[in-house]
């Protein structure tokens, strides 16, 4: 007998000749056999990995994952500290992401020499088949591209591991976004496969716990046309799509035909498609690239983080960027967007490293038991158990991040949120489901109404008009409280006039900045949206920013000039008000003269009358404008009601405080308490009304905008624009009036003399939407 492994099938015919006594054929066969018989390497012993890479089909991930895995194998085999006595070799086939084809290939892998120590399947359908059968052969299965939640089942798949996280990891992110944007009804459409069915079952449970309803649930096998029509018929707006890339093109071709996209719709898709998946020419659809680009614009994707965002060198002594460069070189410059599985390539790379490290970890325990890795066969449970334990305790830094497996053998990872903007994907956030942390980027992802608390980079005019001067004005008014309480006991007598002027300027300019910004805002709203004639309507869209600057500047200039004239003509100085002398009870020979120091001038009442009169008119006018604009609804400015409330607050407190403090001028404690409390309350209430709701949303929801601004860049709120609707109806009314006027003479001529029809012009509502 010849030493070595069992005789392969292709050589069995040679040995058959022995039994038949064909000596000549036997001698020739022995010569050929000695030439072709596989000899063991003089150095390292080979360990074989059976892999299934889908090079085509629903997910052609093998196009990038196979070169990535081979690159990892080459590096492992060149390492002297990992499996120094062994060489890993990959035996791979194209599964076409088809379980039927994979069944045949699995049979070839198992019943064809050499023996494989581990199996590495790709997509979920194939992995389900392989993992369920592998335990019968005591084989460990390590997948690089399977996301089906059904695979997280240790009873059904006891030897299965995967470097690709479960698809259910997307669902906590989706639910987080639904709650963030306060969506309570969603729709779903799925391809009828186990991976998407189990993912959707998990999503349904999670949204139910979050108080969100799945109002429409559609599925399809190969043709999504009927399912998409049903979504349109049932007015689906927020839609979660679960399907492979090839089916995604079919779905969005139908979406384009049904016009199920645009501002009223938001699509959530899987993020592991190729970046240009919608631009790939597909004979299965009859839509152009332009049609597809229009239909997919603005959709949101959730994707497992598959490439380490940090620049660190992992176990392979390679950073994630160096890995990408090496992979591009191995792909021969092929466009990554046209290469299936390019995003999952780091997972295949780390899968090989996870396997190599696990096998390396088993060498010592096996040697202690008198076993070797090369002794593995499909009946050897002990070696399989050692490999399982080593993989189960894996923990290393790979190019895809930290590689750790949970109790079900699934990889743990963060989720990346992206949005298609202008035909390319842009990162908009990360979500860590284990910690519940949503990290939001500063990209221009959301659009909304013009809000005076918006970022300066986006709305510089509104920020200048409202946010900055309002805050500075409130700070100046609050700062004026301190000099209001200072008297001769705290400062020198010569410094007291300076304190008098200081608090006057703080109050005057602080009022102009804070109230002036609110007054400007409410005046703007009144000017733009309460005029009915066409001339004003035409001007609505062309308000020059300098007018807004000028309004605040004029109010500030008036205060500055009046205070300057007051200070020059009749400056404030100390005056002392004497009260009745008091005799202390202890000593009858001493009388106490109570004195009260005031900041006053020669014509104090005149100056106060001018200032109070001017500012009182501003307060009354502000109240009037706030009342007039309380029912205005517009997308451009959505915080004017809060500004109106702040104006009411300031006006009421000022109109009450001014006369009361004049009456209580001789009662210093009561006067100071009343004035300071009025200033503090008016400033803080204003800040609370305008800023606290926004700060609350910024902290809890990570956004600096009002509830009405929860809209995607390509998907605005489904509420109609009342202002636009009103203008449209008014135009239609005018057109109908013209048509009636044109038809009236002809109708009268066509009537009989005996008949008379009294025709009147219809009376149209002044507000068509009321």
Brief digest:
This protein is of the alpha/beta class and 770 residues long.
Report on this model:
Helix content is 48%, strand content 13%. It is α/β, with parallel strands linked by helices and 770 residues long. The chain has three domains: 45-166 and 318-412, Rossmann fold, CATH 3.40.50; 167-306 and 415-440, Rossmann fold (3-Layer(aba) Sandwich), CATH 3.40.50.2300; 468-527 and 548-701, no CATH class. An eight-stranded mixed sheet has the order 7-6-8-9-10-13-14-15, with helices on both faces. Strands 2-1-3-4-5 form a five-stranded parallel sheet, sandwiched between helices. The protein has a two-stranded antiparallel sheet with strand order 11-12. The termini are far apart.
Keywords:
Rossmann fold; 3 domains; single chain; five-stranded parallel β-sheet; alpha/beta; 770 residues
